[in-house]
Write a structure and sequence with these properties.
The complex is a heterotrimer.
Chain A: H1 2-32, H2 39-57, H3 61-85, H4 92-113, E1 119-120, E2 129-132, E3 135-138, H5 139-161, H6 163-173, H7 175-180, H8 185-211, E4 213-214, H9 218-233, H10 238-259, H11 264-278, H12 285-298
Helix pairs in contact in A: 1-5, 1-6, 1-8, 1-9, 1-10, 2-3, 2-4, 2-8, 2-9, 3-4, 3-8, 5-6, 5-8, 6-8, 9-10, 9-11, 10-11
Chain B: H1 2-26, H2 34-50, H3 56-78, H4 83-102, E1 108-110, E2 113-118, E3 122-124, H5 128-131, H6 136-159, H7 161-171, H8 173-178, H9 183-209, H10 219-231, H11 237-254, H12 262-276, H13 284-293
Antiparallel strand pairs in B: 1-2, 2-3
Chain C: E1 2-11, E2 14-24, E3 29-33, H1 40-47, E4 55-60, E5 63-64, H2 70-76, E6 78-81, H3 93-100, H4 109-122, H5 124-128, H6 139-151, E7 157-161, H7 169-184, E8 188-193, H8 196-202, E9 205-210, E10 213-218, H9 225-234
Parallel strand pairs in C: 3-8, 3-9, 6-7, 7-8
Antiparallel strand pairs in C: 1-2, 1-4, 4-5, 9-10
Classes of the chains: A mainly alpha, B mainly alpha, C alpha/beta.
Chain lengths: 299, 299, 239
């Protein structure tokens, strides 16, 4: 039991980073209704920008975090223009395939610029451990949790309290009605994409700082973790993304402890498959799905 | 000459993979699990010839049937989800298959060496062709016999009532249902047929490369599988072949001189192709023109 | 006030408008009638900047707005109440109205918020459900919301696409009352309708659209109402 609780504690810290990735996917999916497979690689590119700054100039943590976020946003903008803005809205699969091809491109570019397998990344408060009675948590995990929580609250404020957030929600709910109301949907989509990339960049920074190293494979990893967390919670639901991320973190931490490292990812994929089979809308999406159906039948 | 036979082998195997995605795509389902079925076919057929000493043809058929069964089983739960959720669910399944082989060890002694799949090391020494004295040309002919058989079968199916039923489901599920088409049966059989063809492709692939490992069957392959029928325009099996030749024969080879930078341009060119011809290199209109040129009347 | 000349627009692969000339005079209610598939909705969507015309021009208050983006069109003072209402279902009634004022939020936020209060006063049904999600409103309430949302852009000309579609007769009468009142308060209205009978009771001028072309135009009374209705439903086949 104590093991289980300790695993959950560790899992929640990792899950906070997954939640940020899932939120980024949710934001992109909301405004585009299309899948961006290159989301992870754009974050990976950002993290490498941070590494370059660290290795080349021995920059401080704040500068590295900013470089990571900017790098992710720049690459994200490139993806948005090429794979989503330029391709017709009804060609969702063409967009997805394009985004994947761009993934290969980004990975190739990063591997050419950074030929080694792994690179060092500075940690946050690397070795300290905080104890809570019988349980303990690395100080870096605690920092990760705190920063992720602030980012989530910031995003919620942006989406529910600002005009820009109103426009993002309008475009997500009904792009045509948003255009009728005079919302510049192209610009809003682009900016939402940039926000998602910034969020991803922050998540990438936190994860890389936790691991204190980075490889080009991080792109694949981030895409999969973010996608699974988003789908677990329910497509397009902001609280769902947070819940899905935390759940994924907790399940993985326990799978790692009880079943071993090689089954950890397998368990995550199986969890997703089971959830989608029995609750196609995801954990939080189901209610929204039902409410919308009820509303549609009323009209 | 061997170079051209090698190219023909590669194109043949990828055509089978593309055809497997094509069948599923006809019913409007985007499956990213084809690489997973391909992997199952590859590993099983390899184990049958190497470990059990089977002849290649029964080994291929049994492996393909096993892939088809797995695809059918995946098809049932996948029926409950649609669109992007299906994409992610099948993507997760494909990755789960890859991780399964990554962790799968089953080796026996054969003479003085150990053979069989060995987790991350892969499955080496699938030497059925060289052991039985097949030349590169023989192998290429063998592969193309299967490819042509599959293309003819699918082409015939496309023109028959079965093809119309599959396309009806792809166009409009509700309308198809209202004229009495059993959606479950159609979608699951399409998955089954797709799984069978992918399994065949994988079985051949394992034998002509003689060495397979889990990394061969990742997201890259899954995306290629979907990209072929989409670039091919979804109008006929010929489109799939043309798309494979365009990507594997033309783009990959022509860009070889670019060396390390090849993948960067490769990505950009595919995205460009998707942008310029979102309905495929050969859409319905282009196919009509082609038919006119070759004097066959429009059906 | 609004002039459309030689407008040609494709809707998908079909040429839905084949050279349409219509105009809406300031302060008046102009109706476009015609059977299904005549191109009425395409016409409004092209004017509103949702579709790009292939040829022809749209001029509003002397300014050329042909092919302008919907954002530009809204800023010029032209608002569309779309067919089937198209509200934001998971946003509250208030949020829907604020979204309607989106183009004004940056420059004249205070005034926009005052308009919001006035709009809720003007539409008591919306006031009663102001914090409910728009998706839970009835069809009639959603139509009011769509009109109110369009009014939040402070338009001088309102484009209305089939406001009576799918509504009970009593509600239809209410909607047409609102149209008349809005017009009396000074808003120019271009109304597209299937319900020719109701449309003719408010119209100052009408156009008959058939297969992408204008088949007739005149004031109500220049053609027998029976014939207008027949041609509005059946097109040239009935006339």
């Amino acid at each position: 039991m104590a093991d289980f609780l300790q695993n959950c504690l560790d899992g929640i810290a990792t899950g906070a980073a997954y939640a940020l990735l899932a939120l980024g996917f949710t934001l992109i999916f909301g405004v585009l209704r299309r899948l961006n497979l290159s989301y992870g690689p754009s974050i990976m590119a950002g993290v490498f920008a941070g590494t370059a700054l660290y290795m080349g100039f021995n920059a401080g943590l704040a500068e590295i975090a900013i470089a990571t976020v900017i790098g992710a946003v720049v690459v994200g903008a490139y993806i948005e223009r090429l794979c989503f803005w330029a391709i017709r809205k009804d060609m969702a699969v063409a967009s997805m395939v394009s985004s994947f091809v761009i993934w290969m491109q980004i990975e190739e570019a990063v591997t050419l610029l950074f030929p080694d397998r792994t690179y060092a990344f500075p940690g946050i408060l690397a070795d300290a451990v905080v104890e809570f009675g019988p349980f303990f948590l690395r100080a870096s995990s605690l920092a990760m949790l705190a920063i992720a929580a602030i980012a989530v609250l910031g995003l919620l404020a942006l989406i529910y309290r600002t005009h820009f957030g109103l426009a993002v929600r309008a475009v997500s709910e009904n792009p045509e009605a948003a255009r009728v109301a005079g919302v510049n949907t192209g610009l809003v989509t682009f900016l939402a994409f940039a926000c998602a990339s910034a969020l991803g960049g922050l998540a990438g920074f936190l994860i890389a700082a936790g691991d204190q190293q980075i490889t080009p494979l991080f792109g694949l990893w981030a895409t999969f973790k973010g996608l699974i967390a988003m789908m677990l919670g329910g497509m397009g639901s902001i609280p769902g993304a947070v819940l899905g991320g935390l759940l994924l973190g907790v399940v993985e931490a326990n799978a790692l402890w009880y079943l071993g490292v090689e089954t950890r990812d397998l368990v995550a994929y199986m969890l997703l498959f089971v959830v989608l089979t029995f609750r196609p809308g995801g954990l939080m999406g189901q209610a929204a799905l039902m409410a919308r159906r009820a509303a549609e039948s009323r009209v | 000459m061997d170079f051209y036979f090698g190219m023909a082998q590669l194109i043949g195997v990828h055509t089978l993979l593309g055809l497997s995605a094509y069948v599923v795509l006809l019913t409007g389902q985007v499956s990213m699990a084809q690489a997973g079925f391909f992997a199952i076919g590859a590993y099983l057929a390899g184990m049958l010839t190497v470990l059990a000493g089977w002849h290649i043809i029964p080994a291929m058929l049994l492996a393909a049937v096993a892939s088809a069964l797995v695809a059918t089983v995946v098809g049932f739960p996948a029926l409950r989800v649609k669109g992007l959720m299906l994409v992610v669910a099948t993507l997760a399944f494909g990755e789960a298959v890859r991780i399964f082989w990554f962790n799968f060890d089953y080796q026996i002694a054969k003479g003085n060496i150990q053979v069989g799949p060995l987790g991350g090391e892969g499955f080496k020494q699938i030497r059925y062709f060289p052991e039985n004295g097949w030349s590169t040309a023989d192998v290429a002919l063998f592969i193309w016999a299967w490819v042509i058989a599959a293309m003819v079968a699918l082409w015939w199916m496309d023109r028959s009532r079965v093809g119309s039923v599959l396309r009806a489901v792809g166009e409009d599920e509700l309308a198809a249902q209202s004229v009495g088409i059993n959606l479950t049966a159609v979608k699951v059989s399409a998955m089954g047929i797709g799984g069978f063809i992918a399994g065949l492709g994988g079985a051949i692939y394992a034998h002509y490369t003689t060495h397979i490992e889990h990394l061969n069957f990742g997201v890259v392959l899954a995306t290629f599988a979907i990209a072929y029928p989409i670039l091919g325009g979804l109008s006929s099996v010929i489109g799939v072949l043309i798309a494979v030749i365009f990507i594997q024969g033309f783009l990959v080879e022509v860009l070889r001189f670019m060396g390390d930078w090849r993948n960067l341009l490769f990505g950009a060119l595919i995205v460009l192709a998707m942008n310029v011809r979102p309905d495929g290199l050969f859409d319905a209109r282009a196919m009509r023109t082609l038919r006119r040129l070759f004097g066959t009347r429009d059906a | 006030m609004l002039e459309v000349a030689g407008l040609v627009t494709n809707y998908g692969m079909i040429e839905a408008l084949k050279g349409v000339d219509i105009s809406a005079a300031e302060g008046r209610i102009t109706c476009v009638l015609g059977p299904n598939g005549a191109g009425k909705t395409t016409l409004l969507m092209t004017i509103a900047g949702l579709l790009r015309p292939r040829r022809g021009s749209v001029t509003f208050e002397g300014r050329d707005i042909t092919g302008a983006s919907s954002t530009t069109v809204v800023r010029q003072g032209l608002a569309l109440v779309p067919e089937n209402r198209l509200v934001f279902p998971d946003m509250t009634v208030r949020e829907n109205l604020v979204a309607g004022a989106y183009t004004r939020l940056a420059s004249e936020r205070g005034e926009a918020m005052a308009d919001l209060d006035r709009m809720l006063e003007r539409f008591p049904v919306l006031q009663a459900r102001v914090n409910a999600n728009a998706g839970t409103l009835s069809g009639g309430e959603q139509q009011m919301l769509a009109v109110a949302r369009a009014l939040m852009t402070k338009p001088r000309c309102l484009l209305m696409d089939e406001p009576s579609l799918g509504l009970a007769p009593l509600i239809v009468a209410e909607v047409f009352n609102i149209i008349r009142e809005l017009n009396e308060a000074g808003t120019t209205i271009l109304l597209v309708e299937q319900n020719a009978h109701m449309a003719l009771t408010v119209a100052h001028h009408f156009f008959l659209l058939d297969q992408g072309r204008v088949a007739f135009d005149g004031d109500p009374g220049t053609m027998a109402e029976d014939e207008v209705i027949q041609r509005a439903y059946l097109g040239s086949a009935g006339g």
